[in-house]
């Protein structure tokens, strides 16, 4: 069968992964002040980071409408789609709406939309799982079943070096955020089963937070020897390499993948942010 993987642009990918699994992307968009960005391969990430640093406005993101998804669905017989958590974005709903529109004109085409219940590296790992299952020659139903099980079991953890966007967006009170920043408190966050964000732990200082992040892998993960660890970073390659090294010492992942954050993940994570999924 002819299978295609489609993702929204919060799925952080290397060119190697994109080419290996032939992944296509429906881009989200970002507005910071009067600057507008399309989260595609031409995005100036350094310019985006600079704009966020110099703006008091909350960065605004917009999901792809049904159109970009529908355009991609029309090209392929069987499409597997991975989106941001529907609790964080309308991307999932628009991907599903595009599927319904497709039925009206091409009922023979197959589309399965996966709500990642995550973001960033979480989407990356789901796309990676789909790619491996396709490479293994599984049929469509087997791919869906195994991927749904993977999504259900997947863990997402992250540490933010900067709380600026959380404060600007009202997700952390200004006073609490300023106190946390003053005392250098770093939250260790993660995804709930429903796809929302929750606080798992906190530490004073980035190094301690990263150590706690590595510890959380063992607390929340199972059968790690069968899994791939995905690490997404925003201008924090040294941290990502450190986590890869420490995770290799403590656990037995069969593979570890490091990717840079694209635009949407950069807005969420901000400079220095790290996102893990496994």
UniProtKB/TrEMBL annotation:
<dbReference type="Pfam" id="PF02645">
    <property type="entry name" value="DegV"/>
</dbReference>
<dbReference type="InterPro" id="IPR043168">
    <property type="entry name" value="DegV_C"/>
</dbReference>
<dbReference type="InterPro" id="IPR003797">
    <property type="entry name" value="DegV"/>
</dbReference>
<keyword id="KW-0446">Lipid-binding</keyword>
<protein>
    <submittedName>
        <fullName>EDD domain protein, DegV family</fullName>
    </submittedName>
</protein>
<dbReference type="GO" id="GO:0008289">
    <property type="term" value="F:lipid binding"/>
</dbReference>
<dbReference type="InterPro" id="IPR050270">
    <property type="entry name" value="DegV_domain_contain"/>
</dbReference>
């Amino acid at each position: 069968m002819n299978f295609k993987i489609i993702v929204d642009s919060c799925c952080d990918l290397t060119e190697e992964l994109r080419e290996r699994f032939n992944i296509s992307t429906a881009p989200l968009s970002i507005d910071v002040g009067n600057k507008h960005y399309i989260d595609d391969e031409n995005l100036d990430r350094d310019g985006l980071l600079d704009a966020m640093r110099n703006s008091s406005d909350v960065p605004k993101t917009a999901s792809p409408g049904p159109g970009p998804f529908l355009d991609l669905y029309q090209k392929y017989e069987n499409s597997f789609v991975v989106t941001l958590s529907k609790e964080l974005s309308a991307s999932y709903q628009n991907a599903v709406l595009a599927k319904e529109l497709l039925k009206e004109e091409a009922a023979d085409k197959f589309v399965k939309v996966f709500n990642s219940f995550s973001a960033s590296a979480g989407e990356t790992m789901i796309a990676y799982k789909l790619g491996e299952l396709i490479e293994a020659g599984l049929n469509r139903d087997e791919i869906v079943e195994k991927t749904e099980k993977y999504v259900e079991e997947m863990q997402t953890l992250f540490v933010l070096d900067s709380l600026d966007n959380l404060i600007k967006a009202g997700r952390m009170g200004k006073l609490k955020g300023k106190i946390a920043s003053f005392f250098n408190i770093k939250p260790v966050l993660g995804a709930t089963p429903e796809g929302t964000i929750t606080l798992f732990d906190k530490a004073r200082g980035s190094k301690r937070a990263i150590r706690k992040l590595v510890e959380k892998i063992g607390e929340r993960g199972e059968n790690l020897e069968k899994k791939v660890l995905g690490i997404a970073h925003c201008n924090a390659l040294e941290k990502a390499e450190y986590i890869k090294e420490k995770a290799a010492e403590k656990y037995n992942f069969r593979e570890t993948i490091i990717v840079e954050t694209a635009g949407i993940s950069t807005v969420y994570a901000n400079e220095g942010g790290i996102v893990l999924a496994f």
